[in-house]
Amino acid sequence: MRGHGDTSTTDEQDLSTERQTEDIVEIHKNICAGEATPTFIIGHSMGGALAVHVAASGRLKTVIGIAVIDVVEGTAMEALTTMKHFLKSRPQKFGSVGAAVEWCCKSGTAKNSRAARVSMPAQIKKTGDLYTWRIDLSKTEPHWVGWFKGLSKLFLGCRVPKLLVLAGIDRLDTDLIVHLICHAVQEDSPEDLADTLAGFAFRNRFCRPADF
């Protein structure tokens, strides 16, 4: 994915909804090699917004379901008002990968240190003797509103089974809430989230339980 890990593109700052939707569609085409593979799209935070945009675009004809993790239009749009402050307040450099992971946990970005050791390295890059952020998010500001504006209507308009997982009841009244976790739901409570996604898939007959 653009802006993730070792992926390299000519314009690292082009994180517009349209560009990223196109990226996801092309990745899907390459993975599935043209086959009509039933696809259950799952996304967290901005990735959840992109999952909705991809499903709503109709570009992928094989989408059978969508799961959005801890993102709703109202709270996301409100959060954008403090995004600049957040980006300025976080460290711009780290002395080591371990230091970045430690900050991730101490700042409350994630509570599960084991998961943070997996996810954090992909968000930073080696710059000389130090580590800096993989993407300068401040330069993507022109795209922020486009990620989330109109998201609720798009989500509700998707004509496939839908699941919304939220980290707390302050986000929204919803069918499902996983309690006592932070925004990084998939990192802080991976087992609970996996059970929830599997249960949703079984109920909607996306798959069958494995025989052990």
TrEMBL record:
Residues 2-178 form the AB hydrolase-1 domain. Keywords: Hydrolase, Serine esterase. GO terms for molecular function: protein methylesterase activity. SUPFAM superfamilies: alpha/beta-Hydrolases (SSF53474). It comes from Wuchereria bancrofti. InterPro entries: AB_hydrolase_1, AB_hydrolase_fold, PPase_methylesterase_euk. Pfam families: Abhydrolase_6. This is protein phosphatase methylesterase-1. Its EC number is 3.1.1.89. Belongs to the AB hydrolase superfamily. Residues 1-20 are annotated as: Disordered. It catalyses: [phosphatase 2A protein]-C-terminal L-leucine methyl ester + H2O = [phosphatase 2A protein]-C-terminal L-leucine + methanol + H(+).
